[in-house]
């Protein structure tokens, strides 16, 4: 099979690009609030176990499929087995859905960064600011357009000159910012009106110490489901991205080592993000602030930065710069997956596909933005939550498609093609795949069972809770 013209220049470029895809808004925004909601250290413990088991299996599978077939996700599964090409179509749907709203979230982040860059940031800490902003008709569209234009520019430049070069520049800066703010959070202290002193170290202990108080089977299942959902969101698995990136990996690269490094980067940033956000929120807003859920980033954190005084403005600016970096690297990977697939399907150039995919992304992003004003509605979802247009797209991609794609992939690799197919690809250069036995057992027995249960529970087909 002919090798794809596009490729990463080496292992470092692939690892940083893949880590850039994995390290996104999910790590810095979603991980901390889920951790705070689900008992701190308990969520951490469950998540880490899932990373070294399910995360390792799903990431290795996606990357190995891409490199061995040298095809993007749309065609890779058909190359494995003609009757399973429909899985490639399902994976193509995931980035299509995610692209409709990811640039909108990126636009929100861009707006907050702009506010901290040009003002004191006092306004964004006011009650109702975030709701007022997203319900406007024009401002969200402008900032979404700016974010989307940056994404298109990086993807247009290609794999090595665009994605790899951008990731090699952005990722080290992002990691340094996360580490710096995390260390600063640990030094914070605050005395409230009744004289109670709260410190960053106390907040850190709340973050890492498992809380088993009142834990029930139902509660543990909620933690497990949240952690598994976060795993999909965080590692960019079961959405075609890592299959596409894997197709750009040269044969001489040690695949086992590279995937281990991606896991390390992604998990490390997630853990540091929790250490960065949870102690700071605990210091200034207490445990009630930690329970603020998805609004933690755009509503609670600006209040924390405001309470820090003069330093808060600098920290807020650095935080939203870092969050913008993370969102951009992830959005680039989503768009690259769509562009790479469409280039082969339609036989067009990268420039032409960037225009087409960019136009689709802009049109759908406009609809998502309007979903908070002129197209506003509330829909009850099968998992029991209520959401707007953005929430519907997120639900279909994350709660419906990703679990079923993982289930089907595990059946294909575990029982049709055979785990040996993946093991051989990982050991192509004579490298030892130390977790080959664990991989084979998990992909055949554990992953299909758990993914099926996750799909049934998250889509409301059964009520385990």
From TrEMBL:
<feature type="transmembrane region" description="Helical">
    <location>
        <begin position="269"/>
        <end position="287"/>
    </location>
</feature>
<dbReference type="InterPro" id="IPR000175">
    <property type="entry name" value="Na/ntran_symport"/>
</dbReference>
<dbReference type="GO" id="GO:0016020">
    <property type="term" value="C:membrane"/>
</dbReference>
<feature type="transmembrane region" description="Helical">
    <location>
        <begin position="139"/>
        <end position="156"/>
    </location>
</feature>
<feature type="transmembrane region" description="Helical">
    <location>
        <begin position="353"/>
        <end position="375"/>
    </location>
</feature>
<feature type="transmembrane region" description="Helical">
    <location>
        <begin position="227"/>
        <end position="248"/>
    </location>
</feature>
<keyword id="KW-0812">Transmembrane</keyword>
<dbReference type="InterPro" id="IPR047218">
    <property type="entry name" value="YocR/YhdH-like"/>
</dbReference>
<feature type="transmembrane region" description="Helical">
    <location>
        <begin position="168"/>
        <end position="190"/>
    </location>
</feature>
<feature type="transmembrane region" description="Helical">
    <location>
        <begin position="439"/>
        <end position="462"/>
    </location>
</feature>
<dbReference type="Pfam" id="PF00209">
    <property type="entry name" value="SNF"/>
</dbReference>
<feature type="transmembrane region" description="Helical">
    <location>
        <begin position="86"/>
        <end position="109"/>
    </location>
</feature>
<feature type="transmembrane region" description="Helical">
    <location>
        <begin position="40"/>
        <end position="65"/>
    </location>
</feature>
<protein>
    <submittedName>
        <fullName>Sodium-dependent transporter</fullName>
    </submittedName>
</protein>
<feature type="transmembrane region" description="Helical">
    <location>
        <begin position="307"/>
        <end position="332"/>
    </location>
</feature>
<feature type="transmembrane region" description="Helical">
    <location>
        <begin position="395"/>
        <end position="418"/>
    </location>
</feature>
<keyword id="KW-0813">Transport</keyword>
<keyword id="KW-1133">Transmembrane helix</keyword>
<keyword id="KW-0472">Membrane</keyword>
<dbReference type="InterPro" id="IPR037272">
    <property type="entry name" value="SNS_sf"/>
</dbReference>
């Amino acid at each position: 099979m002919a090798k794809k013209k596009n490729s990463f220049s080496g292992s470092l470029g692939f690892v940083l690009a893949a880590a850039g895809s994995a390290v996104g808004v999910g790590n810095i925004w979603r991980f901390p609030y889920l951790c705070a909601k689900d008992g701190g250290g308990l969520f951490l413990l469950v998540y880490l176990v899932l990373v070294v088991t399910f995360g390792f299996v799903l990431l290795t599978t996606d990357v190995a499929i891409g490199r061995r077939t040298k095809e993007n996700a749309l065609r890779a599964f058909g190359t494995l087995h003609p009757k399973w090409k429909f899985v490639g179509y399902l994976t193509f749907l995931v980035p299509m859905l995610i692209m409709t709203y990811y640039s909108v979230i990126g636009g929100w982040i861009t707006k907050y960064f702009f506010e901290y860059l040009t003002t004191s940031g006092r306004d964004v800490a006011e009650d109702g600011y975030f709701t007022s902003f997203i319900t406007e008709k024009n401002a969200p569209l402008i900032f979404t357009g700016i974010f989307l234009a940056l994404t298109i520019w990086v993807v247009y430049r290609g794999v090595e000159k665009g994605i790899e070069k951008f990731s090699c520049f952005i990722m080290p800066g992002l990691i340094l910012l996360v580490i710096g703010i995390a260390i600063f959070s640990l030094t914070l202290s605050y005395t409230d009106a009744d004289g109670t002193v709260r410190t960053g170290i106390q907040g850190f202990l709340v973050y890492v110490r498992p809380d088993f108080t009142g834990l029930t089977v139902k509660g543990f299942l909620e933690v497990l489901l949240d952690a598994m959902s976060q795993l999909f969101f965080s590692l960019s698995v079961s959405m075609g991205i890592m299959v596409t990136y894997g197709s750009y990996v040269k044969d001489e690269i040690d695949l086992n080592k590279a995937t281990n490094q991606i896991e390390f980067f992604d998990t490390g940033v997630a853990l540091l993000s929790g250490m960065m956000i949870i102690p700071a929120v605990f210091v200034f807003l207490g445990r009630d602030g930690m329970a603020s859920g998805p609004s933690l980033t755009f509503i609670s954190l600006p209040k924390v930065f405001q309470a820090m005084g003069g330093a808060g403005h600098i920290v807020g600016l650095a935080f939203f710069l870092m969050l913008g970096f993370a969102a951009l690297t992830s959005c680039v990977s989503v768009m690259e997956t769509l562009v790479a697939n469409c280039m082969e399907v339609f036989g067009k150039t990268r420039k032409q596909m960037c225009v087409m995919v960019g136009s689709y992304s802009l049109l759908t992003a406009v609809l998502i933005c309007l979903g908070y004003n002129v197209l506003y509605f509330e829909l009850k979802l099968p998992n029991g939550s209520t959401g707007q247009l953005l929430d519907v797209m997120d639900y279909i991609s994350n709660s419906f498609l990703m679990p079923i794609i993982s289930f089907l992939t595990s059946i294909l690799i575990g029982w049709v093609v055979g785990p040996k197919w993946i093991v051989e690809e990982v050991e192509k250069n004579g490298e030892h795949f130390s977790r080959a036995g664990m991989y084979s057992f998990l992909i055949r027995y554990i992953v299909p069972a758990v993914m099926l249960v996750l799909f049934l529970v998250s889509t409301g087909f059964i009520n385990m809770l």
